[in-house]
Structures are given as C-alpha cells and as structure tokens.
Amino acid sequence: MGGGVTNTGQMNDEDSVLINLGAVGAYSNTLSPAVTGNISYGAIDGGFDFMRGPSYKVGLFGGYFAFKQDMSAFGCTVVAFNNCTPNPVPTSGGPVITENDKWTAVRIGLAAEAMLTNRVKLSGDVAYLPWVWFNGIDQHFVGNTGVLDEIFQASGKGNGVQIDALLSYYLTPQWSVGLGGRYWGMWTTPNGEWTCTSAPCLPTFAQPSYFRAQVEQLGAFVQTSYKFDWGGSVATLH
Fold first, then answer.
1. Of 154, 151, 16, 8, which is closest to residue 83 (Cα–Cα)?
2. 96: domain range?
3. Res. 113: pLDDT tops 50
4. Domain count of the chain?
5. Could you give phi then psi for residue 181, rounded to 5 degrees?
6. What is the pTM of this model?
7. What is the 3-state secondary structure (H, E, C) of the chain?
8. Beta carbons of 157 and 192 less than 8 angstroms apart
9. Buried b (16+ CB within 10 A) or exposed e, 137-156
C-alpha cells in the first residue's frame, strides 16, 4: 500500500462538443495552471518460484491492484473557444474542476531477484493487467464560487502493464536500503462511456458518449527492509 500528494502541475480540459451561453462549439480547450490532489494505491499478490539457486530466484505471481487519484484544478485560461465563464483566477476561491478517478485491475506477472555481490541485490517484476476497470467523476464549478455546475460520470474497461525494479544494498545481513523505479500504465478501450448527470448539460448530453481513459505513472522510490528471524521463521518489514 502507498500514497502521495500532488502539489504542482496543470490540467487541460478538452471537449469536442460543448454548450456555452447558448452557442455550440466544435472544440474547446482550457488550461488550469494550478493542480493539487492526492493518490493512493495497493496491491496484493500470491505466487511461487519455479527457478531457484543459491543467489537467485524467479517466480510467477497473480493478484489484485487498485489505484485512486483525486485532482482539483484552479484557474482557467482559454486555449480554444471561450469556455472560461466567469473567468476565475488560480490564486483565490475554489477549484474550477475536480477529477476523482478509481482504477482496479487483475495482475499476472513474473518476478525475479539476484544477489550481484554478497551485499548488492537486484530485483524486479513485470506484470500484465489483462482486466482493468475504470470509474471517474468529473465535476465543473462556476468560476471560483464553489457552486457545482456540471457533473460527468465515466466508466470503462481495458488493460495495462506495470514494471518495477529495485537495487538494494545490505548494510547488515538483516538490514538493506534500496533505490528503485517504476512505470504503471492503464487504459480503457475506446468504447468507454461518459454521461452528464446534471441539469446544465441536459438534455444535450443525456445519452452516453464514447471515450478512452488512460493513466500513466513514472517515478522513483527509496526503500528500507529489515528481516527478523524468530526461531527459524523469517518476517520482513519494509
């Protein structure tokens, strides 16, 4: 399990068709220059080693993964078409858009580790996500007022991939520290659906529209691990 915060970044809100002050536009793109939020995630796996030697092991595993991301975007600058009404500023008031997304998936993959020296270990895993489920809520507000204007609910199914690698150094036979990197990518097929569920965009968007959702995470992490040996059984704390 893990989590983190978002304290910088930007959000582009793009729409192919929109209703704005009674006018119909073919394409809209707005930029919110300030984004805050948080992420949380967790995975549980089980598996077995099919290759094992004095200094290495290779195994198969399967399990379940969940990823949740919440974002709040502040401010609005027109990139294409006038869709910043009223025009908010990013330094005061509430967000103009909030995005709350949840991804869940089944994982199957390959994990391996090897002692390069008596103190250095390289480990990693590659997982394919054959079944991915996405659910999201996109909320739009009137300027900085905090008054809810539009609600868009989205869902879809797809797949993904996850890659993790870790290089560890053993300070003692029980205690190690490590530096790692990871890439997570999940996406839905183009037949995902989003629907407006609030009055301002009804009845125009009463019927579901098709779309493709995608999320990617690329990052580095540090880890420490300590192994306790209680009468022949070993427990590992990360």
1. 16
2. 2-237
3. yes
4. 1
5. -145, 155
6. 0.84
7. CEEEEECCCCEEEEECCEEECCEEECCEEEEECEEEEEEEEEEEEEEEEEEEECCEEEEEEEEEEEEEEEEEEECCEEEECCCCCCCCCCCCCCCCEEEEEEEEEEEEEEEEEEECCCCEEEEEEEEEEEEEEEEEEEEEECCCCCCEEEEEEEEEEEEEEEEEEEEEEECCCCEEEEEEEEEEEEEECCCEEEEECCHHHCCCCCCCEEECCEEEEEEEEEEEEEEEEECCEEEEEC
8. yes
9. bbbbbbbbeeeebbbbbbbb
Query: Contact 179/167 with Cβ under 8 angstroms?
Result: yes
How do residues 36-58 score in pLDDT, each as one tens digit? Answer: 999 999 999 999 999 999 999 99
Hey, how many other C-beta atoms are within 10 angstroms of the C-beta on 132?
A: 22
User: How far apart are the C-alpha atoms of 152 and 197, rounded to whole Å?
Assistant: 6
CATH number at residue 213: 2.40.128.90
